[in-house]
Design goal:
Helix content: 25-40%
Largest sheet: 8 strands, antiparallel
Number of strands: 22
Strand content: 15-25%
Strand order of the largest sheet: 13-12-9-10-11-14-21-19
Length: 479
Amino acid sequence: MFNKILVANRSEIAIRVFRAARELHIPSVGIYSAEDRLTLHRFNTRESYRVGEGKGPIEAYLDMDDIIRIAKKTGADAIHPGYGFLSENPDFAQLSAESGITFIGPSPEIMRRLGNKVEARALAIDADVPVMPATEPLPHDGAEVKRRASEVGYPLMLKASWGGGGRGMRVIEDESLLLEQVAAARREAQAAFGNDEVYLEKLVRNARHVEVQIMGDSHGQVVHLFERDCTVQRRHQKIVERAPAPYLSPAERDEISSCNAGTVEFLQDVDTDAFYFIEVNPRIQVEHTVTEQITGLDLVKSQIRIAAGARIGDVDSSGIPAQEDIQMRGAAIQCRVTTEDPRNNFIPDYGHIVAYRSPAGPGIRLDAGTAYSGAVIGRHYDSLLVKITASGVSEAEATDRMLRGLSEFRVRGVETNLAFLSALILNSRFIKGDYNTRFVDESPELLELPPDRSHGAQLLHFIGDVIVNGNSQVAGRKM
């Protein structure tokens, strides 16, 4: 096992990895930018060092050489990248290996093949997995970009080849704004991932987004841990994730789970029920908590064990049993609580959290990095405040626990999307699984929220009014 793990990330995912390392009795090292000097993740581990001195808030966490310097200085023999930043950068994985430090994740070669969405598409095609029509990486010649776009056919989805989280994604309806949007997506991708490569993919308007969690080891063993529904999005950013996906039949579940090791993220065309491979994310994801709750497995601890040489199928070694012993129990839902104002076009809010209280009780899990009284919410990073994951023996129980959890939050000093999330969970289309990736944008009733800033008693009253009086699309649902 490793002597010490450096976590090359920030906020809640850094804390998540610190906790996993602590349970494995491995010391951990944190890093922080100048802007993060007062954040919780800096103080959640015994050692933490400033990274990227003189660089901006994003660039600091992309400073590969300085991260390696800190790892060597502290005696860390492994690096966990979390998600975002350098987590899908094969050059960083290569630099770690060349420095004698284990990168907890895929090898540089695998990352180059899977982390790059264009390359992953080619692998899927070789494996006879259906894919969307798409271009190769776009050149910088405008005329050639237009030609390739016309070849695939509008409408199109513009995507960054590296990274995820919706960065660099744009819907392109026609040629009029094509070059302008490509330039903007390149800038966004470069800032977020250190690489400005983008490509175009045919857009499916009526689509669901479903992904399969996989785990593989260095001994050739690969297993899947069932699917997650990630359809509820806004501006290509996931808002709510759930498992199991309520719209999948057992046959469809088997189909997407058994294709091959590279088939992770899919779009399902609602009109035809056909599945299309879209990409692989060779890293831990924000929504991994949903899979952990329905399988009882700790994915981050297993990542660490597998990177140290453990074998899948040996539970004592890796924490992951053989495929036939992995079972799905109950249901789980994750909501991303953000400091955004739904009544004002979801504009992020900034300032001090002057009061904070979180939910607790059966079936409630919280993963947070900036959610505490006195926290300063700045404009340098994304607006995620806390992830709440609710689980239960059934989908209905998980839903009810999520509603209870959302109502127990108290956040003052900044706006949040708590009331919006409650309205979403209560929506009849969500309950039935009858939605697509445009669900939020096409459901103005989700913004008919009470004028509440504390998200406490008034939110409880709002939920109670929905249940008792049926003032919502879910009238008549048994609670």
